[in-house]
Amino acid sequence: MIFLLYVELRREGRGERGRGGWTRNKRFIDAALAEGRPIRLVTNPNELYLGGNVFQKELKYLQGKGYEWRQVEFGEVPPWEVYRVRPYLNLRSWEGYVMPPSVKEFFQEVRAAYSGPLIRIGLDGPEETHDVMPVSSYRARELAYDVFLDVREGTVGTAVKVVTDDIYLSIDVEALALALEIMEKRGGFSRSARSLKQLRKSLEGQAAYVEMLHPLLRDGEAERVLTQAGARRWR
Questions:
Q1: Could you list the residue range(s) of the whole structural domain that residue 137 is in?
Q2: How far apart, in whole angstroms, are the C-alpha atoms of residue 208 and residue 114?
Q3: From CA 143, how far away is CA 146, in angstroms rounded?
Q4: The whole model's pTM is what?
Q5: Does residue 177 form part of some domain?
Q6: Dihedral angle at the C-alpha atoms of 80, 83, 86, 92, nearest 10 degrees?
């Protein structure tokens, strides 16, 4: 989970609202959305949505990607959660657009694509969630493979993670395969999920790389391998 809030910086007596932080924050938000991590707002978005500050840019950016926010149950901190708006589409033109698979179809297709690897490499799962975006997660102790569907973009991806009480590492399956020289160049598998046929092809390709990578991540090697491959460390 990540948290967004309004911060006012002061230099030489002048208020400079979040100056210089937008580029960094945008990358942070993009990474969270891609991995399906929940986003909460610490500051009331209905009071500080004007004024040209970084927090305003974050909110507008989320809206542009098809998200809104709502107040959650009383007593929860932070009290505003970011969620995907229905309908998911914010397109300039409908011409040539194919409706992507539904969340139900996505979960069904992930189960089918991972039915073989589930048995062959000994994964547990799936754990299926739909907070920010649909995510189907398979685990082997501290190692996790999160398969996620970006409905608005019509793409599917897989994040390889190491998650413990003290560690949270994450890297895209393609980036890991390239770092370990299992994939020669980018584009070794498809990410398209604009149709059920495309989704199946993409899932099968990504599941195949998960199966090739997994032997290199067993026996306590996952943290070392992901760190050397340049995985993001969240804690």
A1: 103-233
A2: 9
A3: 10
A4: 0.61
A5: yes
A6: 110
